[in-house]
Predict the 3D structure of the following.
Amino acid sequence: MNKHTIIIKNVSYYCAYIPSARSQKFSFDEVRGEIKVSIPSVSSEEAPIAFRLSDYSHTEKGKTEIRWYDGKLYSRCVMDDFVSRGGKESVKPEYMAENCRPSLPYGHNRSREICVKRYRSYYQDYILVDGYVWRRCGEPRYVVNTFGLGHNHGGTGLFVEEYYNQNIPASNYFSALDGDAAVAYANKVAERRGDTESMGRFEKMIEVLIPEAVTIRPETEHGEGDAFINKINRIAEAAPDSTTAGLLALMATAQEIGK
């Protein structure tokens, strides 16, 4: 059974008052007061691991596990998430209470009511798991992305992301359960582009421990990507080499600008 941890913030805000019976305007006093925010505190058994990620970017951030709690996904917070070069140390609630705050309006618009609303909204994406801070995240998915002009100029990559990029079409996205299809598609794209140095290097990077946590359907919930970027990608695939692709891409860019 989960409990809730209270984080207390000492916040400055403005209180309005009428200085006298004859006054027609409010005056404001800056005061300080406590704002209490409650976040769920659960055990690792109550928030089991749904995914393990082994791609480069998540490993570097120290976020190799994603947990599932109350139908939502959470990734572990580390000091780097809040402080530049803070390191990979896990974050405790005491640090959150002391250092983490939402943006607040300046001046007399910063009322207590607004502060309470902002703080509660800010902290609603956090939980504690075994005493450490975890933050709400998106569902991990595979995405095939391309760089440069083909023929090993740039290359083809397979990545793990938590959200859709509106510039990339739905055909390039795969759910965590479709790792084999993602790898096959990445190799197919690399072959079409002539990215021979990328071919054969792709592998599955999402371990699924709770299949029910996989809910995304890229083909029905995402779009066709950016039309111009798609055009450049088609040029890279059709061109015999990167030099030709570059010239054709310049022509397409000039045509696009001239519209």
About this structure: Helices lie at 56-61, 93-99, 112-123, 179-193, 218-221, 227-238, 242-257.
